[in-house]
Design goal:
The protein has 246 residues and is mainly alpha-helical. It has one domain: Up-down Bundle (Growth Hormone, Chain: A), CATH 1.20.1250. The protein has 9 helices and 2 strands, in the order ααααααββααα. The protein has a two-stranded antiparallel sheet with strand order 1-2. The chain is elongated and about 80 Å long.
């Protein structure tokens, strides 16, 4: 950390145009916390970043308990890694610059919503009595499709981590630091609380896939919130275009 601090001091520079924002009082910056958009982005980030961190912490244990792997092979199969999240976050920033954060985040949430719905279904064995006797059936994801689907979720969340911050840059250009300082810890808090809640749900239900049920619920909240938050803005945009055409 000391070496990093020295490199930062020697090779970074201060943009004079940014010094204007430093004159904003602390009270003014804290007043931003009353903006509903800040709370909304905290919720989004607690899903894409907090959920990513939680899965990275929890999935090794999940592989051991659900598929019977030893700790070494479980960790090797872990598809949600910090490296993946860091590299693909850059791609998420590029996509957000090109297509806008709303479209990218909306797509990320839908991918996670569908994936978590499928991942939530527990390994199930059941028997049906027919005229031919008792028929046994099994429903559940094998380890390979489970890993591939979890990898897709990891990619989507990594992209979403960047798209959420693109919202902040667009809507709070003069207060990026203050808003980011709230949204960022919200994601970290999600990454801290979710694994604990995964364990609580497992103790209560005995179903390991209850972790994905919880994540499915958090994504549902994000999708509903996004829909009702951006619908008025879309309506205003359409009305503005119609007025200009007239």
């Amino acid at each position: 950390m000391l070496i990093t601090a020295m490199l930062f001091w020697m090779f970074s520079y201060q943009d004079a145009s940014h010094l204007v924002s430093s004159k904003v009082s602390l009270r003014t910056q804290l007043a931003l916390m009353k903006d509903p958009a800040v709370l909304r982005y905290c919720q989004y980030y607690s899903v894409v970043f907090g959920g990513y961190v939680a899965l990275a912490l929890w999935m090794t244990k999940y592989y051991v308990g659900e598929y019977g792997f030893d700790i070494k092979h479980a960790a090797f199969r872990q598809p949600v890694s910090p490296c993946l999240g860091g590299v693909l976050r850059a791609m998420g920033g590029w996509l957000s610059d090109r297509f806008g954060p709303q479209k990218v985040t909306w797509g990320v949430m839908w991918i996670c919503w569908v994936a978590f719905f499928i991942l939530s279904y527990p390994q199930t064995d059941f028997n049906i009595t027919t005229t031919r006797g008792v028929q046994s059936f099994h429903i559940g994801l094998g380890v390979t499709p489970f890993t591939l689907m979890l990898f897709g979720v990891g990619v989507a969340m990594a992209v979403g981590k960047a798209s959420v911050f693109k919202f902040i840059a667009n809507e709070f250009p003069d207060n990026i630091g203050a808003v980011s300082g709230v949204v960022g810890p919200a994601g970290g808090l999600g990454g801290f609380l979710l694994p604990i809640l995964f364990g609580v749900l497992l103790d209560i239900t005995g179903v390991r896939s209850s972790a994905f049920m919880l994540l499915y619920g958090t994504v549902c909240v994000s999708l509903v919130w996004m829909h009702f938050s951006f619908k008025p803005k879309q309506g205003k945009a359409v009305a503005s275009v119609a007025k200009q055409s007239a």
